[in-house]
Amino acid sequence: MKKGLFLTIEGGEGAGKTTLIEGVVLALRAQGRNVMMTREPGGIPIAEQIRNVILDTANTSMDARTEALLYAAARRQHLVEKVLPALAQGDVVICDRFVDSSLAYQGYARGLGIEEVWSINQFAIEGFMPQLTIWMDISAEAGIARINATSGREINRLDLESMAFHEKVREGYRKLMAADPDRIVRVDAEQTQENVLNDVIAIINRRF
Ligand SMILES: Nc1ncnc2c1ncn2[C@@H]1O[C@H](COP(=O)(O)OP(=O)(O)O)[C@@H](O)[C@H]1O
Ligand SMILES: [Mg+2]
Q1: Is 43 one of the annotated binding-site residues?
Q2: Cα 14 to ligand 1 centre (Å)
Q3: Which of 3, 102, 189, 208 satisfies CB 3.0 to 4.6 Å to 136 for a cystine?
Q4: CA-CA distance, 72 to 102, in Å (whole number)?
């Protein structure tokens, strides 16, 4: 079986993940590689149906662990239906967020516990982890300011209140990197788009 390469891009809101991935895909394709870019739930109908349950505003009574289990279930389906087949045919798969998002957001920032969220995700992914994870590190203020600049509105009180949450997410990623420094590589996401992309391409080329 040919073996592809599984890369994930992580980081807080407005870090520039989606922007970066477009550039990485173009650069890798220019090197002659077959690249598939994806994001959860990745257009997989079963995973999308699960996500609709999570996002349904009628489900106000949803327990945090139920939510974590549903995210893990959607992740499983996306992995099996989309990521693994692409890797089996030798593609480079670049995924916008993966298991580390659950660990940083729900495990750490929401307080469910990184270990607990890790254990249910282990059941979902059966140890199948990316070979490389890029952590796009940005301060909460800078990331949210980018989002707000995009949507063309002022930063409001609610954004400011949630700033502590976004900082906690960042702290979560910091802990994840400390625990798995061979897999997770930090990139300074406050640089220009061009410099971020150059850093990431250099990291990928150095590795593979
Ligand atoms: N390095 C950068 N410097 C300044 N602005 C950026 C940079 N990267 C992305 N942006 C802008 O910030 C906003 C959020 O970027 P996006 O890629 O959607 O972030 P994410 O997917 O991590 O939430 C977009 O308007 C994008 O054009
Ligand atoms: Mg995005």
Answers
A1: no
A2: 5
A3: 189
A4: 8
What residues have a C-beta under 5 A from ligand 2, the ion?
A: 17-18
**Can you tell me the distance from the alpha carbon of 18 to that of 9, in angstroms, rounded to the nearest whole number?**
9
Residue type, 92: V
Query: Which tokens is 126 given?
Result: 């059966």
Residue 157: predicted pLDDT: 65
Ligand 1 site residues (CB inside 6 A) read 11, 13-19, 146, 150, 192-193, 196
pLDDT tens track for 13-26 = 999 999 999 999 99
**CA 97 to chain CA mean position, Å:** 2
Torsions phi, psi for 107 (to 5 deg): -65, -50
Please give the Cα distance from 127 to 184 (Å, whole number): 16
pLDDT at residue number 155: 65
Pairing relation of β-strands 92-96 and 35-39? Answer: parallel
Domains of the chain: 5-39+91-207 (3.40.50.300)
Question: From the CB of residue 20, how many other CB atoms can be counted at a distance below 10 Å?
Answer: 23
| CA–CA gap between residue 26 and residue 22 (Å, rounded) | 6
- DSSP states of 143-207 as a string? HHHHHHHHHT----HHHHHTHHHHHHHHHHHHHHHHH-TTTEEEEETTS-HHHHHHHHHHHHHHH
**Residue 66 marked ligand-binding:** no
